[in-house]
Amino acid sequence: MTPPFRSAQLPPPAPVPERAQGLPMADGGVATERADAARNRMRLLEAAARLVAEHGAEHVTMEAVACAASVGKGTVFRRFGDRVGLMYALLDHSERAFQQAFLSGPPPLGPGAPPVERLEAFGVAAIRHTLAYMDVLLETDQDANRRYSHPARLVRGTHIAVLLREAGVTGDLALLTENLLGCFEPPLVNHLRTVRGMPVERLEAGWRDLVDRTVRRGPSGCCP
């Protein structure tokens, strides 16, 4: 059995580009904070991310985060409410960074590359994102109904549908998009990695193959 892929540390904060402002995120909205409040929040999130990477999400407590960030426990509770709020804040931060990357980052993930290349890059990045935050995703992903209507998932789905349309794919794009989104579901990715023992490279190659088949690219690598 392959050992679980431990969560990576949070990426550094980045300014939200104008075109990405207002997008739904893990908390369903866009937070506005004073500079000092934002720095304090980031300090707590970075401490929590280190603990998740070292011990797994299931072992992270509010007390441990407070100790790692050298603040009082009350500070953590006031900022996030409870442990569930802290876990969702971790995911919100990571999803914001991911959305910035595929909406306004450099190609091939961001604008400027052909739609098929962007779709391939998006899937690879989404798989890596799922693996990096697997512990937190599995712990917070307990409600299937909420999972499929989550605002951040809707943004991903819209992005995939737009790229499919730009690539000339026709048919039931809504259903096709849902099928493609299923490739990034944390329970499935975790099963393939830890139970089936599939390496990350195989998952990424499988996504590229699925994209190729979906857009019916010929041997030359061009869409007919």
TrEMBL record:
HTH tetR-type domain span: 38-98
DNA-binding region: 61-80
Span list, region Disordered: 1-24
UniProt keyword annotations, A-Z: DNA-binding
Gene3D superfamilies, A to Z: Tetracycline Repressor, domain 2
Keyword DNA-binding applies: yes
Pfam name, any one: TetR_N
Name this polypeptide is given: TetR/AcrR family transcriptional regulator
Lineage: Bacteria, Bacillati, Actinomycetota, Actinomycetes, Kitasatosporales
